[in-house]
Each structure stands twice: as structure tokens, then as C-alpha cells.
Write a structure and sequence with these properties.
This protein is α/β, with parallel strands linked by helices. The protein contains ten helices and five strands. It folds into three domains: 2-81; 194-362; 376-438, no CATH class. Strands 1-2-3-4-5 form a five-stranded mixed beta sheet.
């Protein structure tokens, strides 16, 4: 095919050449020359046609031979492939059979192993269940024993506690009987006016003793010159001048028991008329006692221009305070303040705080002097602290320098190869022996 294309190209080039030659010469010359060239071309064309026929024949023969060879080659290749495929198929069947046999043997082996494992596991589970049952039984026995012991102990403790409580109840009943007897005796004692007064005085004295110091009040002191009447207690108050003079605050205890008990009994019986009558009698009794205290004990400027009446029972004080206008009337007319146990304690506490404040004020000059001394000493202490700070800074710098040197030594020691354990131990023993020898 390639040769035919070359011939065609050659013919086309000749034709182009003939056309160019024909244009250059004259028509005759051109024709003559053209004829010659045409004849030459025809002869060449004829030669080429013969060559082409020969070439075509040769090509056909070669193609026939090639087809035979290719057919033979394809047939041989096909036979070879078929034989290879057959061999591979046989080999694959053999491998599959071998794999099936192996899988069957493996499955059988696995079944045997699983059966053995199942039997072993079942045996172990039975053993564990047996052990657990034995342990649970032992635990149950232990728990039962402990529960029995605990129950017996707690029941014993409970019975013991109940017995103790019953014994305490019996003791309490006995104490209540004794207390009832004591109350009866107290009632008998309190029926005497002097005894009741002494009891109120004792209670007032206990309150004063708990809150004030003995130097802050007098006992049974006369507040009027050449008078035999003595007030039970008088609190020592500082005078206005602050030069050692003092002013006394009279306090006297009163306990109108009969009037108060008649009012209480009337209230318990639900008799408002009797209760109101007893309350009026109590009010008149309180006014009379206030007048008596005012006349006997108030003596300005030796005493304050007022005094305090102490009622030793809270319920009595509450009843007096409940009477409308009674306390205000007594305070305005007789300059008497009425106080119960709780209000007396509060009043004395406030007085005690006042005494302390006054003592602090009197000693303020000493405090200021002490503060001046402390200030001067504190300045010296500041100088000492500055010196100490400088010393600490110097010590810190010294420690930092030692730390830097230690780090430098550590960096240098990193390059030193460590001795083996036995050699290092031997070296240490040698050093110890040398040290012992030196010692």
C-alpha cells in the first residue's frame, strides 16, 4: 500500500513538471517535448504497472502465507490455552477438594475442642456453684449467729436502758415528793414577813455578786445621817467632780406574797371580782412600799434622786408592770423604779459597762503614754527590720551564687562516666575504711 502511494505521488509530480515545461517553451517544442515526455512517462507508467502487478502478486502470496502462519499460531495458542485452562481447572478442583477436607477436619476438631471446653466449663461451673453454696451457707450461719448476738445484745441493752429509765423515773418521783415537801416547807417559811424579806434580799445579793465586784456596792448601809434605817444594797456611782466622791443608788427588795397569792388563787378559780380586788390590794401595797423606800433611803446628794424596788419573782413583776399607769405613777411621785430579776440583771450589766468605760477614760493618759513608748520602740523595731532585710538579701545572694556553682559542678559531672555498681560499692567501702582509719 505504501509503494502504491509513492508511485501516485511520483506521477502527480511528473504531471506538474510537464505542465511547467509546456508553459516555458513554444507550443511546437512543447508538444514535441511533451510527446517525448509522455512517451517516457507512458513507458515508466507501463514499467510501474508491471512492477505494481508483480508487487501485488508478491503481497498476495505473502498474505496467504501470513494467514496460514497466523492461523497455525492461533490454533496452537488456542490449544495451549485450553490445555492450561484444563490443568488449572483440575488443580482448582483438587485445591477445593483439599480445602473441603481441611474444613471438615477443622470443623470436627473444633467440635471436639468445644465439646471438651463445654465439659470442662460445666465441671468448673458445678465446682464454683458448689463452693458458692458452701460459702453462702457458711455466710448464712455467720450472719444468723451475728444477728442473734446483735439482737440479744440490743435487747439486753434496751432492757437495761428501760430499767435505768424506770429507775430514774422512780428517783424523779422521789425527788418530786421531796420537792413537794420542800415547797410546803418553803411556803411555811415564806408566811413569815421577815423570812420573805430575807429571801428577796438573798436573791438580789446573788444577782449583784454575779455582775458587779464587791467594791462597787455596799450592803446594809445607812443613807441618812443619824438614821437607824439601812437600805439592803447601795451601788457606788462616781460623782460629777471625778475627785473620788461617790453617789449611792439605793436598792431594796420587797415581796408582797399574800396579796399576790390571793390574786393568783382568784384567777385560778375564775372569779374576776375577787381577782380585781386582790389586784387593787397588790397595787396599794406596792405604792405603800415605794413610799416607804422613798422616805427612808433617798437622800440627795448622798444618794441619787431615785431608788430601785426589786421584786424577786418574774410573775409578780409582770403583774405590776401590767397594771396601767402604776409604774409611771410610782416613778413620778416617789422616784422609785420597779425591777424584776431579768430587768435588774440588764440594768446592772449596763452599769458594769459604764464603770468599765469610766475606768478606761480615767486611764486614757496612761494609755497614751504607753502608745508613745510603743511608737518609739516600733521605730527601733523598723530599723532592726531594715537591717535584718539587708542581711537576708546578702544571704539570698550567697545562696544564689552557691546554687550557680552547684549547677556548674552538676554540668561538669554529667560528662563523668558512672562506675559499675560493684566498683562503686567497693569504692564506697574503701572510702569508709580510709575514713575509719583516719578517725
Amino acid at each position: 500500500m505504501e509503494t502504491i502511494l509513492q508511485l501516485g505521488a511520483f506521477i502527480i509530480s511528473l504531471l506538474v513538471l510537464l505542465v511547467m515545461l509546456a508553459e516555458r517553451g513554444s507550443a511546437a517544442k512543447r508538444n514535441e517535448k511533451l510527446k517525448q515526455e509522455i512517451s517516457a512517462v507512458e513507458s515508466k507508467t507501463e514499467y510501474l504497472e508491471k512492477a505494481l502487478d508483480k508487487l501485488e502478486k508478491t503481497l498476495r502470496e505473502e498474505m496467504v502465507l501470513s494467514r496460514g502462519e497466523v492461523s497455525n499460531s492461533m490454533k496452537g495458542l488456542s490449544d495451549s490455552l485450553i490445555s492450561r485452562i484444563n490443568e488449572m481447572s483440575k488443580l482448582q478442583h483438587m485445591q477445593v477438594d483439599s480445602m473441603d477436607n481441611r474444613m471438615a477436619r477443622l470443623a470436627q476438631t473444633n467440635e471436639e475442642k468445644l465439646e471438651a471446653m463445654r465439659k470442662e466449663l460445666e465441671s468448673k461451673l458445678n465446682s464454683i456453684m458448689k463452693e458458692n453454696s458452701e460459702k453462702l451457707e457458711a455466710m448464712r450461719i455467720t450472719v444468723d449467729e451475728k444477728l442473734n448476738d446483735t439482737l440479744e445484745k440490743r435487747l439486753g441493752d434496751s432492757f437495761k436502758l428501760v430499767s435505768e429509765r424506770l429507775e430514774q423515773v422512780h428517783k424523779g418521783l422521789g425527788e418530786m415528793q421531796i420537792l413537794a415537801t420542800g415547797v410546803g416547807d418553803l411556803k411555811k417559811v415564806l408566811t413569815n414577813v421577815k423570812t420573805r424579806g430575807i429571801w428577796g434580799e438573798i436573791q438580789l445579793g446573788n444577782i449583784l455578786e454575779q455582775i458587779l465586784t464587791p467594791e462597787q456596792y455596799y450592803t446594809n448601809i445607812s443613807t441618812k445621817k443619824n438614821s437607824l434605817e439601812k437600805v439592803e444594797f447601795a451601788i457606788r456611782l462616781p460623782g460629777k467632780g471625778g475627785d473620788g466622791e461617790e453617789v449611792l443608788l439605793p436598792i431594796d427588795a420587797k415581796f408582797p406574797q399574800e396579796d399576790f397569792y390571793r390574786m393568783v388563787e382568784a384567777g385560778e378559780k375564775g372569779d374576776p371580782v375577787a381577782m380585781e380586788e386582790a389586784a387593787k390590794q397588790l397595787e396599794n401595797r406596792i405604792k405603800a412600799e415605794a413610799k416607804r423606800i422613798s422616805e427612808k433611803y433617798i437622800n440627795p446628794p448622798v444618794t441619787t434622786d431615785f431608788a430601785i424596788m426589786f421584786l424577786p419573782i418574774e410573775s409578780l413583776y409582770a403583774e405590776v408592770a401590767k397594771r396601767a399607769g402604776l409604774m409611771e405613777h410610782i416613778q413620778e411621785k416617789y422616784k422609785i423604779n420597779i425591777s424584776g430579776p431579768s430587768t435588774m440583771a440588764a440594768f446592772l450589766n449596763s452599769l458594769s459597762m459604764g464603770f468599765r468605760t469610766l475606768a478606761i477614760q480615767r486611764r486614757s493618759s496612761e494609755v497614751w503614754a504607753l502608745l508613745g513608748t510603743v511608737k518609739s520602740e516600733f521605730a527601733k523595731f523598723g530599723d532592726i527590720l531594715d537591717k535584718t532585710n539587708k542581711k537576708l538579701q546578702e544571704a539570698t545572694k550567697t545562696i544564689e551564687a552557691a546554687t550557680k556553682k552547684t549547677r556548674t559542678i552538676e554540668r561538669k559531672l554529667k560528662d563523668v562516666e558512672a562506675l559499675p555498681l560493684e566498683e562503686s560499692a567497693l569504692s564506697l567501702d574503701t572510702d569508709e575504711l580510709m575514713y575509719d582509719g583516719e578517725v
